[in-house]
Design goal:
Length: 220
């Protein structure tokens, strides 16, 4: 279990770091800014997860491998951004993969700390969306989790599969793989087919209550 958690964490860290670095390049940040954004996107969810389960200091800052992986992803993106750009919508695809890996690892870690199934699901969602939220805020974008496209819903689905598989006594690798696949597939389908949750109807008050016209000038 520890080996699986470490593998999921490091792969997820690398992928989210790539997404953060790509966002940094798109917003024309310098090398330092790209690395900072890569590290923030890669570690925010894991740090929040570890704090909540009492695993402190968080692995993302106490284990050199996490820092090295995030740094490597930032440098790779800085040097070979045109190669990464060939992927279709690279930030969204990488973000979906990181979301799936972190949602799964968050739920599994919660279960290893004997948290309730509900808490494990919530922690899986938080781990998945945390990095993307911080990445988007740092570049002044509206976080994906607050938009109409499926984001937190995809992480929720993956976390539920992990918790259900654990409750049924299935092999860890099986339900971890299935949960990650469902989360990733839902996110990609939502992007390609423009799936989304209902949005509140917004009416511009200036259109419904136009300002009254100024009185005519009869001075002439």
């Amino acid at each position: 279990m520890e080996t699986l958690l470490l593998a999921l964490d490091l792969v997820g860290t690398f992928i989210f770091a790539l997404s953060g670095a790509v966002a940094g390049v798109r917003h024309r940040l310098d090398l330092f800014g790209i690395i900072v954004l890569a590290f923030a996107a890669a570690t925010a969810g894991g740090i929040a997860r570890d704090q909540l389960v009492g695993d402190v200091p968080p692995n993302s800052i106490s284990d050199w491998r996490y820092i090295a992986v995030a740094l490597l992803a930032g440098l790779i993106t800085f040097r070979w951004y045109p190669v990464i750009l060939r992927l279709r919508n690279p930030v969204l695809v990488l973000d979906a993969a990181g979301l799936a890996l972190f949602a799964v690892s968050g739920s599994i870690k919660a279960l290893t700390f004997d948290l309730s199934p509900t808490a494990a699901i919530v922690l899986g969602v938080l781990t998945g969306v945390g990095g993307g939220i911080l990445r988007d805020l740092l570049v002044k974008d509206v976080p994906n989790v607050l938009r109409s496209e499926f984001y937190a819903i995809a992480a929720l689905a993956g976390s539920v599969v992990v918790v259900a598989g654990n409750w049924l006594g299935l092999p860890t690798v099986l339900y971890a793989t299935l949960g990650g696949f469902i989360c990733f597939a839902l996110r990609i389908l939502a992007i390609r087919r423009s799936w989304g949750l209902p949005m509140a109807r917004h009416v511009d008050p200036r259109l419904t209550h136009p300002a009254s016209s100024p009185p005519p000038d009869h001075s002439s």
